[in-house]
Design goal:
alpha/beta
């Protein structure tokens, strides 16, 4: 791993045992994260975005889940083989995560200020008063009014959006080298969302913090990220720079996502109606015992015979930066039937 990369994920596979069979939630995911970079991960619910990041931190519950393969390299150390004590020392200090659901992530019987200061005391060795003062400072930083008083409140006394901001304060409190933000602005209004995104952007720029931003909002991706991974059915189907992805999307699924964005003026998607909002037909596939075929082919307007018979390989394509796509249309072996 070169000095520019702070994290490298290679062939990550995470599976879950279920009554219906083996669920391959993450199936061979690979990407690199550079120091100071903001990497976006997008895709429909159930595509494997959150499980990928939980796997990086060793937070997948086992059983029913297990890491079935791959490597996660941080500082030349494979985190997948690291003991739990080492992972606990990394979590919150070197690698922090903003979880998607703040209500279940906060302890309901511990005051907010104490929950934030706990990580500060653990990782920075500060005394109780110093850590409490730092917690109040973090609450003020993310826009909580009257932070000294609110530090003494419990989670149920905060609204959903304010609880989300508390989770962000906890994640940023130890100045992590890597920040994993899993839908960090879901419960926030647009004004606070803009403030939080500016905070994350400034943190990345000032401290060279690397950020993995998981989101459904392609507008956020366009304004925040330098590179984007598009996930579908547990795999990265396209990876490209933001400019390449938005101006020249290659995978039909990526094209469908971009076509689904409401616009004042829209060109009809292939076979679509310009008078209606476009939506990708069909539903994501079941991840249990998936057939050896392209998982997107039942929903793809350009599906070919080979798409129904085999998984497309990852193909490198020229662009502003190195980019990859998993689609037979760009593999050199598929022939466009249309």
């Amino acid at each position: 791993m070169t000095e520019d990369y702070v994290l490298k994920v290679e062939g990550l596979a995470t599976h879950f045992s279920s009554a219906g069979g083996l669920v391959k939630a993450v199936d061979g995911v690979s990407f690199e994260l550079r120091r100071g970079e903001i990497l976006g991960i997008v895709g429909e619910s159930g595509s494997g975005k959150s499980v990928t990041n939980l796997s990086i931190l060793g937070l997948v519950q086992c059983p029913p889940g297990k890491i079935a393969g791959g490597r996660v390299l941080y500082r030349e150390r494979d985190l997948l083989g690291a003991p739990e004590e080492e992972l606990r020392a990394l979590r919150g200090k070197d690698i922090s995560m903003i979880f998607q659901d703040p209500l279940t992530s906060l302890n309901p019987v511990i005051k907010i200020g104490r929950q934030i200061s706990e990580a500060i005391r653990l990782h920075h060795g500060l005394g109780r008063r110093e850590a409490a003062a730092k917690a109040v400072e973090m609450l003020a930083l993310i826009g909580i009014p009257d932070p000294e008083r609110r530090a003494g409140d419990y989670p149920h006394q905060f609204s959903g959006g304010m609880r989300q901001r508390v989770m962000i304060a906890m994640a940023l409190s130890c100045d992590p080298e890597i920040l994993i933000a899993d839908e960090p602005t879901t419960a926030l209004d647009v004004t606070i969302q803009a403030q939080i995104l500016d905070l994350i952007r400034n943190l990345s720029s000032r401290s060279k913090t690397a950020v993995i931003l998981v989101t459904h909002d392609l507008g956020v991706v366009a304004g925040m990220c330098e590179e984007v991974c598009v996930m579908y059915a547990g795999r990265i189907v396209e990876r490209a720079s933001v400019d390449d992805l938005f101006y020249d999307p290659l995978h039909p699924y990526t094209r469908g996502l971009l076509a689904s964005i409401p616009r004042a003026e829209r060109a009809p998607e292939e076979g679509g109606n310009p008078d209606r909002l476009y939506s990708i037909p069909g539903s994501p596939p079941s991840l249990v015992d998936m057939p050896d075929a392209c998982p997107f082919h039942p929903r793809c307007p350009r599906a070919m015979d080979i798409c129904r018979r085999a998984q497309p390989p990852e193909t490198s394509v020229a662009g502003l930066t190195p980019r990859t796509v998993r689609c037979w249309l760009h593999s050199g072996e598929g022939v466009d039937a249309g």
